Amino acid sequence: MSTPMRRRSADRRASQTRYQMDSGFMHAIRARRKENGSAAAPGAPLADSWRADVGAGLVVFLVALPLCLGVALASGAPLFSGIVTGIVGGLLVARLSGSQLMVSGPAAGLTAIVLAAITELGSFQAFLVAVVLAGLLQIVLGYAKAGIIGYFFPSSVIKGMLAAIGLILILKQIPYALGAGIGVSEETRFAPGGAEGGNSFTTILGALRHVHPGALLLSLVSLAVLVMWDRPAMARVKKLAPAALVVVVVGVAASALFQLAAPALALPRSALVTLPAMDGVAGIVDALVFPDWSALARPAVYTVAITIALVASLETLLSLEATDKLDPLKRNSPANRELLAQGVGNAVAGLIGGLPMTGVIVRSSANIDAGGRTRWASFFHGVFLLVSVVALARVLNMIPLAALAAILLYTGYKLARPKLFTDAYRLGPKQLVPFATTIVAILFTDLLLGITIGLAVGAFFILLDNYRTAYFYHRDESADHHRVTITLSEDVTFLNKASILEMLDALPRHSAVTIDGSRSLHIDHDVVEHLHDFRETARSRNIALELVGIPEPVPAAAH
Fold first, then answer.
1. Are 357 and 345 in contact (CB under 8 A)?
2. Which class for 415: exposed (0-12), middle (13-18), buried (19 or more C-beta within 10 A)?
3. What value does the mean pLDDT take over residues 13-33?
4. Of 192, 288, 442, 507, which residue has the fewest beta carbons closer than 10 angstroms?
5. In the CATH scheme, what architecture does the domain 470-558 have?
6. Whose CA is closest to 401, among 219, 208, 217?
7. What is the pLDDT of residues 511-545, one digit of tens each?
8. Taking Cα atoms as reference points, which of 6, 67, 7 lies closest to residue 385?
């Protein structure tokens, strides 16, 4: 067979192989779609997915409702503001997002920021201005294609941030779990000199002196339900009845039982959820809170806005990545589009009295477990939230704050679970030190400054690694002389200058030294100068020096 014919035959075989591979791939995709439901493909019409998405939306609503109220409680904001954000996240952000399965709403990770910001700015209306600005900044980040910012945060710092938020959640909810009725206007920091000369510990000590037995009993029962619901044996039951919903139902039933059969345990009205009564659209509009635009003249508003935008964006990007990993079809969601959607959502939420939002992994995983197929599931959860506000306001006002506090206590525990600390310890100082530093810095200062300090410590370890990996040192010794080969790494920067100088100073006298830079893509000018300057030092120490692949230094006049 001639060469051209052999080539054509090989091309036909390669084409058939590619076709078979493509056919097998498409068959696998179709099988996976059949297994997970007909509406698996992005952009599938609602007619193909509405059954699965309505059911998933209902489950997510049942999970989201107590969390929306609980996050607002932990943030020191009006309880209705949490539901406003949940509605905006469902009705608006779900339609703008590029993710098919992620759910957006108020996040526990922002409670520390919100609580401190409302205290600092003096009013919730002033805080709403910062939320609007944060949304606009997220829109700018989206257009600037800043969706990769999450990759620049070391995992140790991110884990430290989440653990610190968990600890703050626990400390802030203990008074509610005890039924002390203590407000949440104190600062989140632990250092002395809080809003009234106190801190979280003094607040807890004050709560311990005013324990309400009914609230304490309800908190303990709620925590027991949450722990039990997390057991593997309860996996099927958990899909039918989410743990947070069960806690709320138990709390409402127990509160009613206390009123009838145990007056000593009865909860006062101040220990229950208080939502404004709403009658139709007009009632909802009357319940909305709007920004106080005079706060634009205060520099602190812009600091809060930047903090919210950065932390909310980071939490959203992390949740987006986690949601994509849980997606049965492994769809990849565009990060920059998600930042745009979250920015629009935060701007709108701030305009109508909502808390800042992020993508939230708890509700997203509930959506996936419940069989959600497209973004319509998140949309339907927003619809159910809106309907509940209009039709179930009286029922919602029967929920004890102690039950919500228990949900947040358990959330805080999962954010700061002991395994995080043991894993960081086991991984060594490079992970443990930035992790622990971030936690301590956040607890003693605030979230943004704490993260900045954690990043600085993480960067120090990166620089230390860079300092140590500037070259590879090989030494052959014989009876009469030493031969040393030093191979420079691929990228040698000014950060490596100190380690290279130390290595040159430690070279043995009367040796033959080869410094090989032929494999390096970049050698910093300062390092090049020092290597050439070392020639004179080498002669004085009787070192035979050979430079391979080291460029000549550029004369100073040429700079």
1. yes
2. buried
3. 43
4. 192
5. 2-Layer Sandwich (3.30)
6. 219
7. 888 888 888 888 888 888 888 888 888 888 888 88
8. 67
